[in-house]
């Protein structure tokens, strides 16, 4: 990842990666099929950040809506500041190029998905969020929306602030759509 950040993904060779890591090329291929798989592996580390953040910080918020906004802000900040636009583009390209529908970026086993699903369940339980869709579906829609923001940020070469726009979209559009609305008489 340091080499990718220093020189750019396309300019780094597998030989340079193995030299920097102090391993043989064969060892590289034991763990990774392609250079882009390094990026995918790094994204499992993102889930470790999400898990740590959610266990340390989300209990400080009283409502499910506040938890979703806090998590979104932390998620967008981490991707903007730690992952970066170039590496996120590589992840999206890698995932789009893989055959089949089971891909790391959309796996429900990821911490990202589980955290959002738990918040949705909490919001439904305390009456904040609608119940005509189950928490699993709400989490799926929420995460699709977040991936859409990430994709736009990639396509537009980080021309907008990911945190500001990500929080605004989630607050003004997505969370508004999942809130439990009082019945009109």
Brief sketch in words of this structure:
The chain has 185 residues and is an all-alpha fold.
What does this structure look like?
The mean pLDDT is 90. The protein has two domains: 1-31, no CATH class; 35-178, Tetracycline Repressor, domain 2 (Orthogonal Bundle), CATH 1.10.357.10. It contains nine helices and no strands. The N and C termini lie far apart (58 Å). Helix 4 (36-57) packs across helix 6 (85-97), helix 5 packs antiparallel against helix 7 and helix 5 (64-83) packs antiparallel against helix 9. It has helices at residues 2-7, 14-21, 25-31, 36-57, 64-83, 85-97, 111-125, 135-155, 162-178. With 185 residues, the protein is an all-alpha fold. Helices cover 70% and strands 0% of the residues. The relative contact order is 0.12.
Chain oligomer state: single chain
Rounded to the nearest angstrom, the radius of gyration is 19 Å
What fraction strand? under 5%
Structural class by helix and strand composition: mainly alpha
CATH superfamily grouping of the largest domain: Tetracycline Repressor, domain 2
Total beta strands: 0
Largest sheet: none
Number of helices: 9
Mean pLDDT across every amino acid position:
90
- Compute the separation of the termini in Å: 58 Å
Name of the level-1 CATH class of the largest domain: Mainly Alpha
CATH fold-level topology of the largest domain: Tetracycline Repressor, domain 2
CATH architectural arrangement of the largest domain:
Orthogonal Bundle
User: What is the H-and-E element order?
Assistant: HHHHHHHHH
- Fraction of residues in helix: 55-70%
Tell the overall outline.
elongated
- Provide the number of structural domains: 2
- Which consecutive residue ranges, at least 5 long each, have pLDDT under 50? none
